[in-house]
Protein 1
Amino acid sequence: MISRELMAPLMFGGLVVFMLVGYPVSFSLAAVGLFFGFFAINFGFFDFSLLQALPERVYGILANDTLLAIPFFTLMGAILERCGLAEDLLDGLGQLFGPVRGGLGYAVIVVGAILGAITGTVAASVIAMGLISLPVMMRYGYDQRFATGVIAASGTITQLIPPSLVLIVLADVLGRSVGDMYAGAWGPSLVQVLLFSLYVLIVSFVKPQWVPGIPRESRTLSGWPLVKKCLWGIVPSLVLIFLVLGTIFLGLATPTEGGAMGTVGAIVLAVLHRPEFSRRGKIASWVASAAIALLALLFMLQTPGVPEGVIAATTSIMKVAETPLFLVFYTGLVIVMLEAVFIKDLRGLIAEASRSTMRITAMVIFILIGSTIFTLVFRGVDGDLWIEHLLSGLPGGKVGFLIFVNVFVFFLAFFLDFFEIAFIIVPLLAPVAAKLGIDLIWFGVLLCVNMQTSFMHPPFGFALFYLRSIAPKEIKSSAIYWGAIPWVVLQVIMVAIVIFWPGLVTSFLDKGNNVDPNKIKIELPASEFERKGEGGEEPAAPDFSTPDKK
């Protein structure tokens, strides 16, 4: 008979074996959980009634409002990926940075960050930039390893920069606010962009032949037309990003509402970037954009911290303007959607984006259901206590725990993708981190930085697979794998930066009102026995010696 103490390690080992075989993770989780659950019931480790919690847990997943943001942000990204925005961004910035050695590398990194903030998925960013920029980089003599590496690495910025899907999942798993997780991730994501750009700069000095500038005769735009093209790609994207994230940060909208707003904004941007739309459709898009932007501004002017006079004036304006603005917005949106229905290319764009969203959402939900089955049984056999004793007993205390966790997650990323790590491993690590006094927002962002490597690890990095699937035949697979290694090193350096500079995450979070609890003085009103009666005498105490007779 198997002892209770062995059940948790055997269960964890069984899961690893299933995943190494290559069986789908969601079904592996459910199968291992149910298999060991029936054995545990048979051996008397827990009662069958424990499994009665499964229907309620599954319902809780499907009713989770936070997770509802995932399909909205995925649909937003899928629409923007296909509407031509990436082409405009890369073309404009490529010509702007083109004369500089490594200019196309800088352009790819900047566009990767912007696309990451508006698409939310690594696949969308890597495929879009690979299709557009890789042939151009090869045409102008860029080194194959450098070109493929910078495209794959810049696509992984998507995982860290808000509104990343991983941050939504981690916030839900860690029981923290999505807005706080987004705020904490801004610092590391910007530093990572700078770190990648610094590497391009170093390469341009050490290996200038790898990153040549674009010849003048190959640059078709200059002056104001070039600036206009760059602004046309960047400004609408940034407006959408800050409109969506700003409402979430300020508490004006939930992540789900922000995602819905982002989806609407993506449809409007798609209209503005597609030539098939009529003049009427484009005017309707501009009107809808102006209405929603004005509404967001009015809402932001009513948040705490704004002077009372401004809030009062804004409230008066809102009473008059809110209904007309919403009416204008919805009228414009209806016109845009009607135009999309009658234009074949845009109808196909929205249909394909919806199918992509459905596939990703279904994958997430199935992994969640499988992980909740596994977790319920794992805790039933005291697996959470086994993990806690294993990790809290590491030498070095908090530092030892962080070193072990980051090395562990780094090697798991060779075999698992970020969703699997977030749903399977993080729930086991979070209680130990909380017990050691580690801030869970900082811990979640640190793990998110680490899990980026799951896309870049040779030979199983998904970003490398995406790039291989669309790269020209003359690009060798060995060049893609070798080209990823320097960027994985940069991501590991980023993990060290977050560990040794926690303020990079925590300084962006709300600090509260900084009230010293030791200086708080609470004065209670005096009781009847402490107040003096009329004439300066104390009131007589009630007589409880005899019962009150009525």
Protein 2
Amino acid sequence: MEYLWIVITLVVAVLAWWLVSLIWGKPWTVKGMFFRSFARLLLRSPELLTIIGILEKFGIHRHNAKFTDASEAFEDKFYQFFRKEQKTLRSYDRTRMDPAVRLSADIMQVFLDDSVEGEQFRHHDYPLNQMFGIQSEMPNFMMTLHPVVSKREAVNYVTRLGLFGKKFDQVLEGLHVREAKGCLPPHFVILRVLDEMKNFISTPPRENPLYTVFAEKLSGLEKLSQADRTQLLNDAAAQIDTVVYPAYHKLIDYFSALEQKTTSDAGVWNLPDGDAYYANRLRTNTTTDYTPEQVHQIGLQEVDRLEGKMRSIFTELGYGMIENPTRKLNELGKDEQFLYQNTDDGRRAALVEYQRLLDEVDSKLDHYFNLRPKAGIKVERIPEFKEMTSPGAYYMMPSMDGKRPGTFYANLRNMKETQKFGMKTLAYHEGIPGHHFQIAIKMELKKIPYFRRVLPFTAYEEGWAMYAEQLCREIGMYKDDPYGELGSLDSELFRAVRLVVDTGIHYKRWTREQAIAYMQAHSAQELESVVSEIERYFVMPGQACAYKIGMIKIVALREKARAALGEKFDLRTFHDAVLKNGSLPLYILEQVIDEYIAKQK
């Protein structure tokens, strides 16, 4: 009996030591560190926990009544956490890791190194802008991602409404720090944000989307009593009136005063150490060491190449030699045969067509993919309150519990912007086999650490979506559809133009007007859309360069594998190699493909 107690004591001591090491010290294994780091990141982000949807399966819902701390003090702790984790990860011996674990360590190292390096520029961004920020993201999160599937989650919804004031105050604190450092947004950003916020609070609380969408969701809860429904709606209206609207008024007052202090519409070169900041953003978004000049030249070359291909198709269609193919496509885009009616019926028809296109291409991919996502995909309209400042489309990943499918959001603000010859490419990019394939597959992978199912690398993810566009051209999805192929080439050209204008704005110090003029000359989009795009690049430096750089790399790696393997090359297994490891920095993806080539040989 005494021996048994000794054994039990030793086991308890070892478990206690392991637990203490896992939580506070250095975990015994790097796998333990992966788990701990991911868990800590998740626990600090209630919104991310809501999006992933893991804890609800275990009856845990408290996170759905909270928002992530956005205070300066909390950010200080976050960067301290990154520095500590970076040091810990470097202390493990990589030579003793098996290849799969070493790959995870390399990916986490990139993430941590980039986070630590970025601390010096933590105040160089614009937390509120026309593309994103709490003024639009928080309402959108509440309406589209907060799960109102029970009375408990409905109460959590109301609780979160009551936290808008605290969150807005925390962000306002950071805005004051940026102002003191001279990190002010361009003047047009201030005007756009002011218009957006004023419009959002221009209606009575019970007409605000935060209320109307909540009421619609409550109507679907059959087990909810009428008394509870009435009380929840009254509580929501009260929170919107006494917390949400006053929070917006604080930011409106701040930005109204800020408008008088800035008139510059300059790139980030205008910020303190702005050139270094842009170089950092370019490295982070492309995961390459390309200089701004290299990216600019790649863009110019691709613009010339793609416009040449478009001219050839126009010639085959009998239009003769077209000097400016994008302007010609713009003219065709106004022809009624390529448009839907700018009505609710027209919008519904477009959503149905997007879904048909996704179903069609999904049925033809067996010869090109072994890996397929289990999660489904649906098509929805971008919420009307934010569609004026939103891009043409975007993708929202499915939840990990499988209850929420992936969603392709289409911007239907003006149906004259939705040309039929461009719909295929948009569906392939955002849906199948683009973002939905890559992101849903990543989230369903079982043999990689959890952090790799969530961590994004823009050049890889957007590069894959653009590669999916080209793949669909190659496998015949545009057969007998030359106008659709023109739309596809115009989409690729649009991303090549981004390389030119993004580096033009932030590196070559182009004015807003110069960038607009270049894009309008090489894009089929209307001036309004061009202006919206150019303004996007001002507030997201380097991000727009990730798309084409990522695509170029993936295509180059495919051709490298094809040349090395000859008859042994199988496109399906190549796609497996690209997709089965989740999102990767481009130079690590190249290492993965080199290993794939060696293994196939």
Protein 3
Amino acid sequence: MRLLSFRAVAVSIIIAAAAVPFAPACGGASGDAETPALDGATDTFVEETAPSMGTISVEPATATVSVALGATGSQTYQVFATKDGVKTDVTTSCALSALDPSFGSFTGAKMTIIARGGDTTVQATCSGQSATASLTVKLTGSVVITGTPAGAPDLFAKASSAADAARMPKLEYPLDGAVAPLNIPAVDAQWTKAGNDLFHLQLSSKFLSIDVFSNVEDAAIDEVAWKAVARTAAGDTLRFTVEGLLSTAPSQKYPGASVSIRMSNDVIDDTAIYYWASSKGDLMTQNFGTTTPPTSVKGDCTSCHSVSRSGTRVGYSRCVGGSCDATYLGFMKFDATTKTWNDTLDANGKKFKGSYSTFSPVGYPYKTDDQSLALATLDGGKLQLFDPDTGKTVASNVGDIASDGGKLSALMADWSPDGHSVVFVQTPKPGQSIDLDGGSLTTMTFSSDGTTHTFGAPKTLVAGPLTLPSGSYGNLFFPSWSADGKLIVFNAARGSWRAFDDASKPGQRLMLTDATGSFKTELTNLNGAGDHNVTWPHWAPATSKDYYWVVYSAERDYGHKLTAANTAKACAANGVKQCKQIWIGAIDKTKLGAGDPSSPPMWMPGQDLGADNISPYWTLPATKVAK
């Protein structure tokens, strides 16, 4: 991906004014000797009391202003008072401001407008009275990829459009219909060459039109320009359209079909995604919205991890000494002073054979993060409560009640955000602690006085088989509570969730239910057409205004930059055909319980395309919350 240089082009601004009448003061009388007047001799407005102004208005009522992408524009306003048919300029007696300061600011009557589009309001205030004007900004610009011939824009301007399917570039990424958080880093658009060597990508929405020129089959504008584009398209669709031509025969250009994504108003800020780069054996983390490379939290094949909702604790399991005949539990805690992750239970000590874990949230049963409980799956399919600060077991009834005295297996638990419930997977076969089949989603209550910890009788939330267009799904697993405790996302498979000859063969799908199990919905748009080994769903750590956000891992193409044909050899193992990558999907709050509420996903920026990235946990960055 190469960053772009941009050339200044115009932004249009349209302003419509509204007049607001002055209200008479209490006890005032028309013609009173103390009523202020306009001094006709000096043509200066003399303010004594508000009623003499009559009404005020902002002009021009409509205006068009040109601004360059990456630069600023300006518009000068006048404010008038009208009384008894007399209109007087009172601009110098009024204060002007943009109600949304992200559009610009005023110096006197002159507004300096920054490069962003959308609707806002300009307001004039005079002695406590006000008038408003509506403001529409349209952003345009021209961007040329570094290394692309400077004359590319002129070639496309002079070329005639032609229809030839073999020569029309096809957009491969982003995915049509995807929804993006507002603060997602710059999207790297990708397309096919189709026999061309120069390309024109247009980004357009209601308030913007940006032209990008490239001599390769992808383009991403720099982060400053992208922020202006994203902010302009917020709450609207952002359309990507590409056309190509051959520089040795530039008289004709070949336009391809458009794809559109929706730029949401949701900002997912101060969050981190922790994931396992399994082909490299490292537990990684990256703050969402940043473009810096991910950093390693722990190496040594630290797998099957979980992260607390507070972001300061990690539970994991590990193959020790190069042998995966068994995996062992470990816990880590973040040290706010040294800014390091430290083992409180080192799996290499082989103290507890186990796999999946989850942590009690801050608030219950303990008010702060100074104390916590960890609930983990032991080898043999039983749940056990731990003190993650010491690595010692904690007495409770969970071991027997969750597995019905060892008759069933209990694994993959997730603690609810309020701390009063746990969702986990029960299977009819004892002894399952990593791989499973026949799993059902099960819940149980949790109560504690800080010393005695009691779990309620398990209740089935969702049981298979679920009949979907792609088959019968009898194995349900990987449940995860949403941040508000209202929803649970989970996996469904046609059989055992891992197939070592072909990892996608079980047809893993993401499913959605609510906390009562009243509906079971396939997230078809997130899953995509076909089988893509879709697993490990988790939620963003807070709910946003318009969408819930889910992060998960899938074995699907990222444009042409990652496919089965060019995948790293290290990823092609254990039935995986190409490097799994982390994807982010939106769940529309207005569509819950009425069909598929999801949209196609966005690739999480900053990943290593040569790594198999799985098991993403979305939580708070430890560096921001640790005390």
